[in-house]
Inverse folding.
């Protein structure tokens, strides 16, 4: 039994934090876990990629077509990583792309047509999420990562068979010393995303 | 025994502390940089008696570590592959002289070049220097091999290389950790010039002894149960490093039976075990990162025992000598070995004709408020001011954050090679016949690391160039390590500060300091300096903005007055600052990102960019 999750974004979007939260939760269940982080030049506009592998795993890399889910904090990052997913994968994509000014020459800006094709291939397994969040009437700019993790737990029963919602909550408490309660609230809010939709 | 989630780098730090390491030195370099800060944190928290330093360069780190090992204490020295090139002079020399305390050299290779260096297989140094090597496959294994390396090094009195790759160094896995050793060894270095000076030593006998030590090391590795052999059937796989984990993944996923030999040490080569697997199988696949070193050794063993069987690997193209291995290319190599097509999740693939996969082209840039952006803008404008075109004036670049001056829209740099090369190259272009001005640029840490000798050389030989040192006080690219210029050590405690301008003036270069955020004034100074004869130094001094903010500096952001803005885009086009947003040709500044450097405000032709009221 294996669960693979691919986390994508750029520097400062909380990819490394998400991978730590998942890994700590898996450890608390005595599961084997491997996390690979690629974060070269992240603060200078480069990509951050984390692969989290839980269960009967040995190698740091998710095999092709074998990611059970993918969370992308940036719409531009997903097309490079489609080789990891299959028809049963769950894709959660943050609608808010990062500032294009960083990417003056990023020619491959997501085309509407390509998004449509991906949506047709993935049906209900791809969800675009607008992470402009409101908690207690306050705009929350950080915490989109935790919210999206909540969405995953609300959608994917496979990950729930490894780690439960409460394991993630205790992991958030262990890993996030600042705004802990707010993040737990965001996680819970994310879980209800699909029902509320 | 506690289970921790650690990266390969962190696991080596744990292994070293459990082994009773007393001194750790190194120079930062991806993917090795996280080891020393992680270890220093533990030393601080647990109040351990371990001396840790970021040395000025890898050669110095290595020399310092050598003396520690000669004093009978255990020592770890860390660097990236390019750093071992710098330190290799000492590495090759001291192997002959041996060590007293255990000495482990941790070097990280980067197959696939994630960190932007050229691919280099540091295992070759093991063969050249006659220094044994261990090749870990995951974090748990890295900790285990670190401890074995210290034991073996001290017992046989030989330094040992622990060579990791990015996918081991930056992978987090579960590691079982023990208590840290607190046994301190007494300092003891006896005068023995017959051994410790190359000139007096019986150098031929030293080499003979060194080769003998390799036999002892191999016996010891066998006792530690390294290089495990498992004969099951006629298909043999020999694997090392992270490739061993791909093999395990595939064996488990597809429930395969294979005869395997795991190589922990390419040197000394486990000839007996290689012989056994060759005798027992009909075909062999060799899986290793980078160059076909194990593969060639296997073929050598075959020749020795006169049994030649087919070998799949990098020489026949089954696997590639370029880039890193991954589960896919290993699974297809195993398919070829066992003549059966193995595939992950084959029935649920996306239709590739419908969904296009492509690599996004990202353009790196400096952080918002980075002083380097301002400096390169100033250099470009100064070149223009002197009446030259951008592509007429050679500007050599160097390693670190300053190398980002190669990207759009600044595109100032023509070359970026190795630490300190900017100045040597600039002098070289000049003597080759470059008639127009030549400029060399490098950061402060790079200047201390390798920038001083080429500057001395250029001055001695009466060269004619402008050296611009982008001084941001930190070694930022690799994670904000302190350097001789910072005034702090890696524990954040005050340390002596070495002044760059006093060095450059002392060796005879007229030196001027500019403030990069004073754009117009600096353009004039740079232009004036470039047009002077001789070797001149400009120090563009401004602290790394990320460090400045981290240390509590609050900057007042700028905003764009939409009524005055003529939507020319000059602010963004000239800087690619991440804080400036182009929303359908309307320009805004994200005040959460803007650090208030004010460079865009000085570029704006209509003064539409203003500082927010506090």
């Amino acid at each position: 039994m294996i669960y693979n999750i691919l986390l994508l974004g750029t520097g400062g979007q909380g990819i490394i934090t998400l991978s730590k939260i998942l890994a700590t939760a898996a450890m608390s269940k005595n599961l084997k876990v491997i996390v690979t982080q690629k974060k070269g030049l992240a603060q200078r506009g480069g990509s951050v990629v984390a692969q989290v592998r839980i269960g009967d795993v040995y190698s740091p890399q998710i095999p092709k077509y074998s990611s059970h889910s993918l969370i992308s904090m940036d719409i531009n990052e997903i097309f490079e990583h489609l080789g990891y997913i299959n028809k049963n994968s769950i894709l959660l994509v943050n609608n808010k792309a990062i500032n294009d000014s960083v990417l003056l020459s990023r020619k491959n800006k997501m085309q509407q047509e390509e998004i449509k094709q991906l949506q047709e291939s993935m049906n209900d397994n791809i969800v675009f999420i607008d992470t402009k969040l409101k908690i207690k009437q306050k705009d929350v700019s950080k915490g989109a990562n935790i919210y999206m993790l909540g969405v995953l737990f609300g959608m994917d029963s496979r990950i729930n068979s490894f780690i439960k919602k409460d394991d993630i909550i205790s992991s958030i408490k262990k890993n996030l010393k600042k705004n802990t309660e707010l993040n737990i609230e965001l996680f819970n809010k994310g879980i209800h995303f699909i029902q509320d939709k | 025994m506690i289970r921790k989630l650690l990266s390969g780098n962190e696991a080596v730090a744990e292994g070293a502390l459990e082994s009773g390491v007393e001194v750790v030195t190194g120079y930062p370099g991806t993917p090795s940089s996280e080891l020393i800060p992680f270890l220093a944190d533990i030393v601080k928290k647990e109040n351990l008696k371990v001396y840790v330093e970021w040395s000025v360069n890898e050669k110095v780190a290595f020399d310092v570590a050598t003396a520690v090992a000669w004093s009978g204490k255990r020592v770890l020295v860390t660097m990236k592959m390019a750093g071992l090139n710098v330190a290799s002079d000492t590495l090759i020399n001291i192997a002959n002289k041996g060590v007293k305390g255990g000495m482990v050299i941790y070097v990280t290779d980067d197959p696939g070049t994630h960190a932007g260096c050229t691919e280099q297989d540091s295992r070759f140094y093991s063969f050249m220097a006659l220094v044994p090597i261990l090749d870990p496959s995951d974090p748990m294994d890295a900790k285990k091999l670190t401890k074995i390396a210290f034991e073996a090094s001290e017992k046989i009195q030989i330094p040992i290389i622990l060579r990791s790759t990015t996918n081991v160094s930056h992978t987090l896995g579960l590691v079982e950790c023990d208590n840290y050793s607190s046994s301190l060894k007494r300092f003891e270095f006896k005068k023995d010039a017959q051994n410790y000076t190359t000139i007096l030593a019986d150098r031929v006998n030293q080499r003979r002894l060194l080769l003998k030590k390799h036999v002892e090391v191999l016996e010891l590795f066998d006792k530690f149960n390294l290089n495990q052999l498992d004969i099951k059937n006629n298909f043999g796989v020999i694997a090392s490093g992270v490739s061993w984990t791909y093999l395990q993944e595939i064996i488990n996923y597809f429930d395969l039976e294979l005869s395997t030999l795991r190589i922990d040490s390419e040197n000394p080569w486990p000839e007996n075990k290689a012989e056994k697997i060759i005798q027992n199988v009909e075909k062999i696949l060799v899986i290793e990162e980078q160059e076909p070193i194990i593969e060639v050794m296997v073929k050598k063993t075959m020749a020795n025992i006169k049994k030649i069987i087919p070998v799949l690997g990098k020489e026949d193209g089954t696997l590639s000598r370029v880039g890193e291995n991954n589960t896919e290319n290993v699974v297809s190599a195993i398919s070829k070995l066992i003549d059966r097509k193995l595939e992950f999740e084959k029935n649920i693939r996306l239709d590739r004709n419908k969904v296009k996969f492509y690599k996004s082209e990202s353009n790196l840039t400096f952080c918002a408020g980075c002083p380097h952006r301002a400096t390169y803008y100033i250099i470009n404008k100064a070149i223009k001011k002197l009446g030259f075109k951008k592509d007429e004036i050679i500007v050599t670049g160097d390693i670190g954050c300053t190398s980002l001056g190669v990207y759009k829209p600044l595109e100032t740099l023509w070359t970026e090679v190795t630490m300190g090369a900017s100045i040597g190259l600039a002098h070289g272009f000049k003597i080759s016949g470059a008639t127009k001005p030549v400029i060399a640029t490098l950061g402060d840490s790079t200047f201390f690391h390798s920038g001083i000798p080429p500057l001395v050389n250029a001055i001695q030989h009466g060269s004619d160039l402008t050296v611009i040192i982008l001084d941001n006080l930190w070694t930022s690219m690799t994670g904000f390590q302190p350097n001789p210029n910072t005034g702090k050590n890696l524990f954040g405690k005050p340390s002596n500060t070495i002044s760059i301008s006093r060095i450059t003036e002392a060796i005879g270069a007229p030196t001027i300091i500019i403030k990069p955020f004073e754009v117009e004034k600096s353009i004039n100074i740079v232009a004036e300096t470039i047009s002077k004869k001789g070797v001149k130094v400009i120090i563009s001094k401004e602290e790394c903005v990320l460090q400045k903010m981290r240390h509590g500096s609050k900057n007042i952001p700028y905003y764009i007055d939409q009524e005055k803005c003529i939507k020319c885009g000059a602010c963004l086009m000239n800087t690619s600052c991440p804080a400036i947003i182009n929303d359908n040709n309307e320009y805004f500044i994200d005040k959460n990102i803007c650090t208030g450097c004010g460079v865009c405000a000085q570029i704006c032709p209509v003064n539409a960019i203003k500082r927010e009221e506090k």
About this structure: The beta strands of chain A are 2-10, 33-38, 47-55, 67-72, 85-94, 126-129, 133-135, 138-140. Chain A has one domain: 2-96+112-196. Chain A touches chain B through 58 residues (CB under 8 Å). Residues 98-109 of chain A have pLDDT under 50 and may be disordered.
